[in-house]
Amino acid sequence: MHETPTDSTGIDEILSDGRVRLRPLRAGDLMTHANGCDDEVNAWSNGGRVSSLDQHLAWLERNARAWHDNEPVVDLAIERCDTGEHVGVVGIQRELPYLAPGEVNLTYALYGGQRGKGFVTAAVTLAMRIANEQGSVTAFLIRCSQENRKSAAVAERLGFSYVGCVVEDSEPLERYVLSRSSQAALA
């Protein structure tokens, strides 16, 4: 079970770089998250489907429990340190069928109006630190649609290597990998 430190403002911060902080998701994020899931978020992370408020709430609560119970798949809130605004989510995923032992898949989504400011790059860097603290990581993966150049650009900025296109659930996905040796070179 994770014990999440609470700072003097009552924010359950897991990790921060002074620009963004990651914290567990909670039911109180419902309206921010639901409103943040615009057409772009839905297109790339939800197959174009728009979730209901009940579906968003169930997802938020599931991720809050996942963090608390130290489960292998969890999404965390991304907040701006300067304003405290919740601007997106970042996911740390282990033990999925397409992952080898030690591999961690990273996911991310920024809400409308927050893109292009470096927040997701900072958040993914923090997520990698968290994953390394949680256990052995042999490689990080980022998978994205061939048309999602913004997501691919995040992987490229972070030094991930493009390893090709894979087909998962009949969807072609670009696959980027950052190996343990590449991680050491970046440190």
Automatic annotation (TrEMBL):
GO terms for molecular function: protein N-terminal-serine acetyltransferase activity; protein-N-terminal-alanine acetyltransferase activity. Coiled coil: none annotated. Residues 19-160 form the N-acetyltransferase domain. The keyword Hydrolase does not apply. One of its GO terms (cellular component) is cytoplasm. The keyword Cell cycle does not apply. It comes from the Bacteria. Keywords: Transferase. This is N-acetyltransferase. It comes from Tessaracoccus antarcticus. The lineage of its organism: Bacteria, Bacillati, Actinomycetota, Actinomycetes, Propionibacteriales.
